[in-house]
């Protein structure tokens, strides 16, 4: 079944009171251990197991989390080892940062730091060679900058250049060309920071090969703080942020070094705003999500450092929404006509030649977004809009050259594309 619907988000949203209950534990008050379900929801169960004393009876309930997290990291390491070695042998410089880097090189025990995707920084022009080497080892290329795939159009603007997935184990590599988020083509700040991160990076021997890792200050300022304040995280802290900060400080990161490096990277104001809510040096942590007013205020305060990333994201979204809506206007008008005069539909169906081109998922999502725009604008969204939504989807797909058909099956009108039912609800 081909589903044309809202893009799904992989981010989890937790009630504020649940987040606040975690604060004492994260700051080291182990007596106030949250319930096990809460620890698991926030990916802190394995960490909790390692910090409780051996005689603590609560460890037994958390043991399986410790074992599973340990096994997962070992599997990730063994899967990455041949890939990173092949990249290094081909002369590619790979810098690991964020979750995997912290687990492997910073935390005392790797399982203490849960992570999902593995983040790697490469020179953008090396993406094609990196992809070819990865595919020769069995990895799947999900998306590459400049190529049109289900994931994104060829002209997508991003700080990432390549997405790879392991063929047998659920590991995804997010390969970055720039170390901080990019929304628009104007990325001078991001390019400068990326270059400075490379200059301060450390080359390490790792599993018979070599890897690059960021300095401790850059791991915090770039991998954590900029990632929270300059990205789609939109200033929201994650439960592991305080622990990451604290562990980096324990490894030798000093407050003076942090402030000095922030000046070099031109992010002093961003750092000071972050420290107001997350600062192990001052035993300060507030996981309460910021209000819209706070976000706007903070965004204006960092404008001279980074510009206004939230505004950039909004403008980018609005631009594509406007483009898609203008394109979909004829589809909306025609769908209304066919709803009132269905006998005209057959003549329309014969007007468009089919094109031998796939319908990418990003196209399907943008198509349905434009459909919803007209349903909202006309107020029809709340008045059983299914027939109009179906007709507008059908007309749009035909205009794109897709061989979509409309059939009556058991009294129900059904859209099919390549013999798959189109679910547009």
In words, what does this structure look like?
The chain starts with a strand and ends with a strand. With 425 residues, it is an alpha+beta fold. The chain contains 17 helices and 13 strands. The strands form four sheets. It has a five-stranded mixed sheet with strand order 2-3-6-5-4. Strands 1-13-12-11 form a four-stranded mixed sheet, covered by helices on one side. Strands 7-8 form a two-stranded antiparallel sheet. Helix 14 packs across helix 16. The protein has helices at residues 16-26, 36-41, 45-51, 59-89, 99-106, 127-136, 188-200, 216-229, 241-250, 255-264, 268-275, 292-301, 303-306, 309-340, 345-349, 361-377, 386-399; strands at 2-3, 95-97, 118-121, 140-144, 160-165, 172-176, 202-206, 209-213, 278-279, 284-285, 404-409, 412-417, 420-423.
Task: Describe this protein with a few key phrases.
single chain; 425 residues; four-stranded mixed sheet
